[in-house]
Amino acid sequence: MAHNVIDVPAAELERQKKIMNRMAEHTAALPETPLAMVDTYGCQQNEADSEKIRGMLHEMGYRFTDNEYEADLIVINTCAVREHAEMRALGNVGALVHAKRAKPGQLIALCGCMVTQEQMAKKVKTSYPHVDLVFGTHELYRFPELLEKTVKPHKGRIFEVRQIDGERFEGLPSYRIHDVKAWLSVMYGCNNFCSYCIVPYVRGRERSRNAQNVIDEARQIIDAGYKEITLLGQNVNSYGKDLDEGRDFAYLIEEINKIPGEFVIRFMTSHPKDATQRLFDTLANCEKAERHIHLPFQSGSSRVLQAMNRRYTREQYIALVEAARRTIPGVAITSDVIVGFPGETEEEFNETLSLVEQLRFDMLFTFIYSPRHGTPAAQMPDPFTRAEKQVWFDRLLDAQSRISAETQAAHVGKEYRVLIDGKNSSNGKLTARTSCNRLVHLNEPETLIGTFQNVRITNSTTWSLEGELI
């Protein structure tokens, strides 16, 4: 697919760095260090973008808070994948009017996928007058410039939302808020144009980062003490297709696997049409690559898959999962599924249900179809009501809950090496992950967070395991 992706010139990135330095001088002269709150909705790619936003803010002299009433600047990084995510973000933005009233001079910025849609940017402009700055996904590297304009006395609010194929840039700082796990974007954008999905319109075309830049950043992350790296892309399996380097996604895993240190590699998200035997072989052969593949199937009906523009059939998807399980011992397969795609019949939904029963996924992320303005599916006839789709959805949830409970129970009594990555705020127990990404709760001291331990599984629930150290 022809597309016009350009590299942001080094001189432009240098200009943004100079603005960061200027802003740092400005904040240093203030009576108190300004506080920023960065709130993120949506996928891991948004989380990675928020780390870049925090990184730039940190360079500009800001420190961070989770309290909107303390913050001098609030940045909300939005999601557009489903209507629910948009409504939640807009609801919370609306509520910020109280924080702004309580703290005169507070600045509010909106960014990310939701506001990259022209109609949503207009909605914010007309209905949310307390928002000072709106910038789209393609303006991320220009954040210092846009913030400086917002902070300085000026007339009017700032809206910067371009509809472009996308740009590639390197060298923005990251400020990671997790001590154990790090996100690492290997590519941006998407060329798939699934008929229900807004992502290619708001994130632009696929653009892979240079392989050596990715590997160097992975080394920096490991040197900084992180124990888990998650490689990110809308479709990591198509990494490198837009470069002339002859290096695919499996190559990245192989090279990062060679870096010395005790750490593990995960990745999101894997499109079935580009998943290859070479990828499965690589996961089987690289000891630091975790035994987990998130492989969204979306529908068990080949007719619906064609209408979704997914470019594989039910049979091809089943063959792919069987190949992964044959190649990678103990691999966990998780997936996404959409219920009630326009025109989907109950018979076709039953095909989805039978696929779930046949393949027995370790976990499913399930959604009722949400129309997205500007996508082909939003124009398709949709004869079934939300209530009818909800009945199907509940049947799917019941089936997957039963399967999950059964697969989880099969791990009781077994021993695994886990990475202890945090603490559960509700029950006070430590959280850990097995190689196949199963959540394990442990009654152990916090000093073990960030370490690998061997555990025996003592109990199971539908969505988690209990364990003890061996």
Provide a descriptive summary of the structure in words.
With 470 residues, the chain is α/β, with parallel strands linked by helices. The chain has four domains: 6-167, 3-Layer(aba) Sandwich (Rossmann fold); 178-290, Transcription Regulator spoIIAA (2-Layer Sandwich), CATH 3.30.750.210; 296-409, Transcription Regulator spoIIAA; 415-469, OB fold (Dihydrolipoamide Acetyltransferase, E2P), CATH 2.40.50.140. 37% of the residues lie in helices and 21% in strands. The protein is built from 14 helices and 21 strands. It has helices at 10-28, 44-59, 83-102, 113-116, 118-127, 143-151, 199-203, 211-223, 249-257, 277-285, 302-307, 314-327, 346-359, 386-409, and strands spanning 6-7, 35-40, 63-64, 73-78, 107-112, 133-135, 158-160, 167-168, 181-185, 187-188, 207-208, 228-232, 264-268, 292-294, 332-339, 363-368, 415-423, 430-433, 439-442, 452-460, 465-469. It has a six-stranded parallel β-sheet with strand order 3-2-4-5-6-7, with helices on both faces. A hairpin with a 5-residue loop joins strand 18 and strand 19. Helix 9 (249-257) packs parallel to helix 10 (277-285). The termini are far apart. The model has no long low-confidence stretch (mean pLDDT 95).
